[in-house]
Each structure stands twice: as C-alpha cells, then as structure tokens.
Amino acid sequence: MSKEQTEAIKRLKRKITIETLWIYVIAVLRKKGGQHGYGVKKAIQQEFNFKPATITTYTVLYRMEKEGLIKKDDANRYHPTEKGLNAYAEAIKLLEETIEKLV
C-alpha cells in the first residue's frame, strides 16, 4: 500500500484491526498457547504487523475474560475458552463470506 493512504483506507484498517482486536487475541492464543497480556500484544505485532496500544490490549483482554471468551491459568496466562473458539470460528466465517461477496 502506498505511503499516502486515503482516509477511507485508514478508517478501514482501524476497523479491521483495533476495533476487532479480540479476533487477533484468539488467533494468537490458538497459535502460541497461553500468553501473558504483554505477550499477546507483542505476538499481535509480530504476526499481524500492527501495534495495538498496551492499554487497549489489556482492556480487550479484560472484556474478553468477563465475556467468557478467554480465561487465565494459575500462572496468569490467557487461554481461549470453548466459547471464545466458537466466537472466533463464527467471526472467521463472517469475514470469509463478506470478502467473497465483495470480490
């Protein structure tokens, strides 16, 4: 993508990264196993090439835990729950269907 992104592309990028951060959290936890909060943030940056703010990452983790999408083990590492994996699968299906319709 060019250095001079349009405002529309910047908005789209934000919508499909920061505003749907929970999907990336589940993806990282599926691939890498249990992670501490900072490890989740770093893995997202490495795997998906965007850098969520630390406070945003922890806010999303807290909400996900409250919703039952993830849980902590005795060492305070996060893991996806069955509910979280099901939500992730639904989200991926929705994204695939949307992309198929767009192209």
What is the element layout, followed by pairings?
Blueprint lengths: L6 H9 L5 H12 L4 H12 L5 H14 L2 E3 L5 E3 L1 H21 L1
Antiparallel strand pairs: 1-2
Can you walk through the features of this model?
This protein is mostly helical and 103 residues long. The chain has one domain: Winged helix-like DNA-binding domain superfamily/Winged helix DNA-binding domain (Arc Repressor Mutant, subunit A, Orthogonal Bundle). The protein has a two-stranded antiparallel ribbon with strand order 1-2. The longest helix has 21 residues. The radius of gyration is 14 Å and the shape is globular.
Spatial arrangement of strands, main beta sheet: 1-2
User: What's the number of helices?
Assistant: 5
Under the CATH scheme, the architecture is Orthogonal Bundle
Major β-sheet profile: 2 strands, antiparallel
Number of structurally distinct domains: 1
Q: Mean pLDDT, as a whole number? A: 94
- What Rg is obtained from the alpha carbons, in whole angstroms? 14 Å
